[in-house]
Amino acid sequence: MISRAKTLLKKIFGYADFRPLQENIISNVLLKKDTLVIMPTGAGKSLCYQIPALIFDGLTIVVSPLISLMNDQVEQLRAWGISAVYLNSSLPKKEYQSTKVRIRRGEVKLLYMAPETLLMPGILTFLQHLTVSCITIDEAHCISEWGHEFRPEYRQLIEIRRQFPKAVCIALTATATPRVQQDIKTSLGFESDNSFIASFNRENLFLQIIPKTDPYFQIIDFLKKYPDQSGIIYCFSRRQVDDLSADLASDGVSVLPYHAGLDDTIRKNNQEAFIRDNVRIIVATIAFGMGINKPNVRFVIHHDLPKNIESYYQQIGRAGRDGLRAHCLLLFSYGDLQKINYFIRQMSGQEKRAAKQQLNALVKFAESRTCRRQRLLSYFGETVSFQKCGMCDNCLGPGKPLEDITAQAQMFLSCVKRTGESFGAGHIIDILRGSECKKVKRFGHDRLSTYGVGEDYSKKAWQHYSRQFIALDLLNQDSEHLTLQLTDKAWQVLKNREPVMGAHIPVAADYSKFNSAEPDYDPELFDILRKKRKELADDADVPPYVIFPDRTLMQMASFYPCTKEALGRIHGVGRVKMESYGSIFIYLINRYCDKKNIPLNRTFQQSEREMRPSRKMRRFFIVGEAYNNGESIAALMERYRVKKTTIIQHLYRYLQSGGMVSINGLIDHSSLNPSDRQRVLEAFHSLGTERLGPVYDALDGEISFDELHLLRIVYLADAMNTVESE
Predict the structure, then answer these.
(1) This model's pTM is above 0.70
(2) Strand runs (DSSP E) across 107-184, as ranges?
């Protein structure tokens, strides 16, 4: 059955190879084994149940929490020619009934419903007369009270499982700590430990946290880096959403608001405008996002602190779903803690304890001066081998050498001690600067020896110092009242035993350190294709990415596929989309190539043989073409005066771009014996090919990365040739 799954992957969805864990998960589900899937947003969770649904004889029920999420999934499935429907309150009565008729006739493979709908007695009676092969529970973290979006209805889904004992169950989520994972399995009655946990590491997301000083101008400055790009700005309250979106609009930014207080029609229209690229930016509360599958979101800004790491991770997960780089900026302020703590104080019992723990973890993450990605992954129970990810602000560094700030630390820490460790940073700063405010005098703190000793430094400078002292573990800060307490490390500083190194002046946010590094493509052709995509999408009343995502258009604008054979090898071009849109895009590409004197009637491998005179042909394509035409790796090394590893990397990039590589002779460059080569290929089959680290670890470090780079090409080339022949 997995062979059929691979065929569907290429012919229906237009993908040449499974992503990490997908093949293992699909195999497990096809064997009717209950399965828990923890995968980050954009890693391909949906295929893990959509492909089995196409193979199973009966119906696959998908439990989804939001109407917008169902609509989005169904639209995309229908664009691939898959019979998918939803039953929810958005359907007119007549269409609701006709949909049920189609389901009863066996014309539907996937049925999407909210848990509330599925639990209705009438729906259960209706489904009892059908063959239900699979029950899929999306956003499964909603089952757990320890999750960040607990929904009581999800706890009742165990009853649905009992109604359909022969149906396999697959639960999927992007955000679940080990505790939540166990709660999901227990709540759903999973007897065996068939859990597949992908890395939470979204390598294409750049993580940046900066002090919130002047948020509006910080955001305006940030947006200059991303002209004409889609993005989401999250705010804490509805009022902030309205105010910020209005201010941005008055400054000429293409923006709309989104929150639960808006009229239903306005809110829906604003969301649709964003999804369909009619507006560039959405400013929203946390009510926005779960149902959004827009792949080309290039940035997410947190104007305010989210409630916990799970919310932060899920919200930044809206960015870069197409696999291209995206920027995630959080404006951090201790004042935001007060707003969150206000709501936590309204809670009680287990809910309150969980919320406090989650908020404390988020603050530690924000204050950290070490690799942010490492901290984030460890929160979800993932161990990483790297010390620096190279894709966060801490790893890129502040751009200035650290300086001695021991004297400032001693002043601040001493003042904290002399006030009984019962006040927050703002009060300590007032004392150090010699403020005559009522609070200082009321407590008699104007008589302390530390009163006025720091008057040479501005309030902003002291705020900057205080944040560093917390990040350096010299101070603990109570998350509810924001009071400061000395740590053991602080006493070493006060006793002149430990120096403190930091920055005297707040470092301005440097957005230029992050390079979006979009693929090399012809921007003029891309713009032509994007405009045509928008026209087709508007005519079909679907979002543009349902036609083709940006990544697919970028490949078209890189390789100029002028025939159906060539277009069929582009990522994301399956059978149905080829039939629906292939001739339109081929015509546009041919017309453009004719205008620019780029040769026509070429196969995909030949498509970059002659580029526009103003563009330099990319090396990896030339190397791939030359190798396929019989030039040896040794000859290519000599021609370009590079090492073998460089040629191997070029061949891998050529494969990634959709080219085919002949494996004849390639295996001869491996120094491994046949048994070890087979071990490596089996590891790729099990763990996927996107990241070599997991494969290296699975083989106990016995196989060098040079060998893994080579054998990855062998594995991928063989897999692509197999799919092509089916």
Answers:
(1) no
(2) 110-113, 132-137, 168-173
